[in-house]
Every structure is written in C-alpha cells, then in structure tokens.
Amino acid sequence: MDELPGLLHSRQPIKVRQGAAELILGLTSDAASLLLITSNSEIVNLIWETLDDKDKKLSVTASQILVNITSHSDQLYTAPKKTVPQILWILHNSEAVHLYNSMAMVLNNISRSSEQAVKIVAMLSLKDCQMFLKLISRNQEQGYLAAVLGNIAVTDGGRELLHQESLFTELISLLTMPGNIIVRRNIARLLRNLSFDTKTHTTLLEFLPQIVYPLVGGEEVEEDDMEKLPLDLQYLPEDKCRESDLQTRILLSDTLFQIGGTFSVREKFREENYYVLLKNYDQWEEDMDARERIQNVIYLIVQEDGKVDLRKDGELPQGLEKEDHVVHVERDSQNLELSIENRGS
Asked: What pTM does this model have?
C-alpha cells in the first residue's frame, strides 16, 4: 500500500500508472481494503489529480475508483470545497465527455447526505443547474445528475434555486423523458421534495397539467367533463400510456397531496376537473400503496374546505408516515398546513 502513491505519480510510465490504478480499483470492491485506501490521503489526492490526465483510459479508471469510494465511504464527504469545483469543471468541459457519467455518479454519492447537500448547493449556480439539464436531455450521462437535483431539493437553498421559472420549465419536461426511468423517477422525487416547501406551490401550480400528465391514461371522458380539463389534458389519444414506473407514480401522487394543502391548488383541482382524471388513475392502479396515495389526493378534492381531516379519525392515511418524516395537518378554511417533522438523518 505504501508503494502505490509512487506508482501512480505522473513521472511513472503510463503502463505502470494504469496498472496501479487498476489495482486500486480492484481494492475498492473490498470493504477492508477500501478503508485502507480512503485513509491514505496521498493516494486519494493522486486519484483526483489523475482525472485530468491526458490518457483517457487512465482518467476513466481514476473516475471509477472515486465512484466506488464515494459509494461506500464518507471519507470524501468532508471535503466538498475541493471536490465539487473539480467535478463541475469536468462537467462543463466538452472535452471530458468520457468522464461525465462517473462524475455525475460521484456528485450524486456525495450529495445524498442532507448535511453535505447544504454545502454543495452553496457551490452551485443557476448556470451549473442549466448545464446539468443539458447533459441529462442529451443523454450524455445516465441520469445521475437528475438524482443530484433531487438530493439538493431537500435543502432550502436547493428549492429556491430549482423552482426558478427559467430552470423549472426545462426541468419538468424531463418528467416524460422516454427510455430513462432513472431521470423520470428522480425528477418526480425532486418535485416531491420541492412540494414540502409551501413557497414552491405557486410555481408547481403553474405546471399542474405536466405533473398530472404521467398519471393520465387514454380512458374515454364525457364531453362535459372534457371541456373543464386543462387544454394539455384534453382529447388525449386512446393509446396514451401512464408512467410505467410504480415509484414515479407514487412520488407524483405524494407531490399532488402536498401541494393540495394550499387552498389555491385545491381550487384548481376542482375548477379544472382533475377529479375525473385522478379517479380513472385510481381505478387503473393495481398497487394498493399507490392507490392509497392517490386516494388521499382525491379526498382533498371532494371534501369541503374546513371539513377536511386528513388524519381520518386521528390517524395519518397509510403511506404518509415515514421513517424520516411525518406529515402534520392543521385545518382551516384556506390552507392545510402540511409540515414536516424530521425523524433522524
């Protein structure tokens, strides 16, 4: 282990350096060896430096090592000031396409902790987030940048950044991105995380048809009901398919429930006849947990304001009580306050 730093050094022949990097990559698959690697700051620093190597094979191996390290160790979580700028520089560099996916995975790994997400979002600009969306939409990485956006959406700074209209329009378009469940699921997770903050509800309300669209099928709707629907949800083809991913459907239902705590959203639900579409989805859905989630939204729509009791005899509806969060509801005639109580990290 003590010899590895010398073998990785740039003064060594490329074959020696590649051999050392492949050895380290193999060691990172074993928990005991991984601990030895991450405890050696010289090796870790050399791996980060090797990302910039002109030899693409070597730099890709180094990036794969960092994916493994950040997947299983919090060793690098404590140094975002050094690592995040380098990752962003690579993602902005059009000549580093071969590293995009690995760097997206690393950034996802180090932003999964809410504490680190707070630090990371402080280093992100609107331009960085726009770059993420460009890489996602062009399939230049597998969707892990969407996961990063979902991770930072748990923070106040992240929510403030992400619900800006200049970013949000492109962001929500990814909710129906074909062929990539990772992207669709993480955009839905992002929306759910945004919905926990009532300050985002006005923005989310503007895009309500896009949020509901993945839950809508091609069922026949009576003409009178059809005319009340938003234009984007009228006269959909008979072969219109709903979102195939169960977890994405659940996340979207949770989002609708959270924003339904705002009076203006409930008004929109009723005025534009969302009940018809959500009831069709409820009848189509086979998963009982998912049905519980959408039924909670329907319950918001059909009950009179001032009489809505989401606790249903003092108990939260199934699926709303989580290991990490509990939704609390306080009723009044205008807004249903859905606050989040943290239970652990």
From this structure: 0.84
